[in-house]
Amino acid sequence: MAARWSSENVVVEFRDSQATAMSVDCLGQHAVLSGRRFLYIVNLDAPFEGHRKISRQSKWDIGAVQWNPHDSFAHYFAASSNQRIDLYKWKDGSGEVGTTLQGHTRVISDLDWAVFEPDLLVTSSVDTYIYIWDIKDTRKPTVALSAVAGASQVKWNKKNANCLATSHDGDVRIWDKRKPSTAVEYLAAHLSKIHGLDWHPDSEHILATSSQDNSVKFWDYRQPRKYLNILPCQVPVWKARYTPFSNGLVTVMVPQLRRENSLLLWNVFDLNTPVHTFVGHDDVVLEFQWRKQKEGSKDYQLVTWSRDQTLRMWRVDSQMQRLCANDILDGVDEFIESISLLPEPEKTFHTPDTDHQHNSSHGEEEVLKEDPLSNVLEEKKSDQLGLPQTLQQEFSLINVQIRNVNVEMDAADRSCTVSVHCSNHRVKMLVKFPAQYPNNAAPSFQFINPTTITSTMKAKLLKILKDTSLQKVKRNQSCLEPCLRQLVSCLESFVNQEDSASSNPFALPNSVTPPLPTFARVTTAYGSYQDANIPFPRTSGARFCGAGYLVYFTRPMTMHRAVSPTEPTPRSLSALSAYHTGLIAPMKIRTEAPGNLRLYSGSPTRSEKEQVSISSFYYKERMSPRSARRRWSIQAINDFPSLLMKSVGKGHFLLMGH
């Protein structure tokens, strides 16, 4: 689709304002421009008839400003200046600072009023804290969210009153204000800094992120590992925000580049080219917001503020809005309108018993009475991601080259037969797909003859297959190929375990000796043995610091080598406790007979209660005679409490009984 170009409808210049931020109130009547010396209040219905000023005395520019989004509090707005938030009240043509919020220790990066509660305001800062304030009690924040890194953006969810999102460099964290101790979800969204966040106006779980890495990404935070879609751009993106109509998105470039001064309007269902370009600013756009739609009008207005010190308003008519619409959804709207014209069926009343019987006997019919709009959205989303939309398509796209697997598919019967051969084992399974698959309806798995694996292994495989299929169908994704790969992988792992057990010449089949201790013994000290990639710590080293000094660390002077220099260093941190407990024998012991190693290497070489230290692998304490005598004395008191010790000088003690 070719891009359309346009010029602004209204242009107002504020040459002396030096404003760095702009906001439009929820009623669409006023806009505030935030400068260092004054705040300018502009009447959007008559922008040329002058403006009002609110004086402010500060050496700091305003970082962010926003009107309260609730009609009853529409005369309040908040502005951030360095480490504080000023709450302004604008009424009857005059404004003043009502109160100030102070709590952050570093500069405030962003603020956002709550969508559902008019008294709540959230602020983010470089000091790594996100504060939620209640303007009825401004002494301290009501909720404090602590993150490791400073936050550059914070936005309330537009559909969930308890949910908000923050950006930290290239990452996004999803928070629940009822659980402030930690984020509920984490998205590694971009490789560069995120400049903008925006929640979808109609979906609780969808948000868009714009970044320095020249892209806008769309996310469902329930699937944090993979973005839904991506909009690649030529330059870093400063802001990307959804439109209040259809499926539009407006983007603007990073202000520091000074190469592109226009705004781009996109259709999120077709990101190949923008559907409209707003051209007119002579310098980069600092802020843009939508004005509330006037009663009786189908047109919207986009209000923009640029570094060229001009405020511009752009009219977005119904024809431009249709460019952001989805053709399929338009057809659905017409279909819903035609349904609404049909006569209503006669209403019947049922007792609870008959209702229960009706629900149980006609459950399949109720499944079909779903919202057609949601079904179309899911189909459109699946089509965008290149996923099969029918079972027949899934069968046609299945990879038939998976090793040791033969699949016989019957789309008419909505079933398939899977045969897997691995070593001496054979598995044959019947998979049946329900009519609603894959829309939150998992297939069923049943073993059929000839299947040679044990019943225990059957139960394990069934559990793995059910878990895998449920994870996929919850996202309305096909699951047959992932289940096949899991089946082959688990079966091969089972066969390999059997082969290793049968080929071990050191195993004692009828041994009465208790089994050797497992690695679980030392997990209390280091958590788990999943740290094979963590290198073994150093006990000495040196680095030059920024001031030009050489900083070094080494072992204490009271310690010396405990092992020979030729003794190999452990490969990972978890090997430390294994060496000390005897689970891993030193290299010189490994040269002994394999049978002796198997029988005796499990005996611990030191007490499990003794603290294992990293340096003790390399060094052991050099104990002086005095410290040895003191240690013996302490041990004597523990072992013989009926003895009393009397010091006779020079570190000597006399034992006396009583």
UniProtKB/TrEMBL annotation:
Repeat positions for WD: 101-143, 187-229
Protein name: GATOR2 complex protein WDR59 isoform X5
Coiled-coil ranges per UniProt: none
Pfam families linked: WD40 (PF00400)
Xref: Gene3D superfamilies: Ubiquitin Conjugating Enzyme (3.10.110.10), YVTN repeat-like/Quinoprotein amine dehydrogenase (2.130.10.10)
Chain spans, region Disordered: 346-370
Ranges of residues in domain RWD: 393-494
PANTHER family: GATOR COMPLEX PROTEIN WDR59 (PTHR46170:SF1)
Domain of life (superkingdom): Eukaryota
Native source organism of the sequence: Equus przewalskii
InterPro entries: RWD_dom, UBQ-conjugating_enzyme/RWD, WD40/YVTN_repeat-like_dom_sf, WD40_PAC1, WD40_repeat_CS, WD40_repeat_dom_sf, WD40_rpt, WDR59-like
Signal peptide positions on this chain: none
Gene, per the UniProt record: WDR59
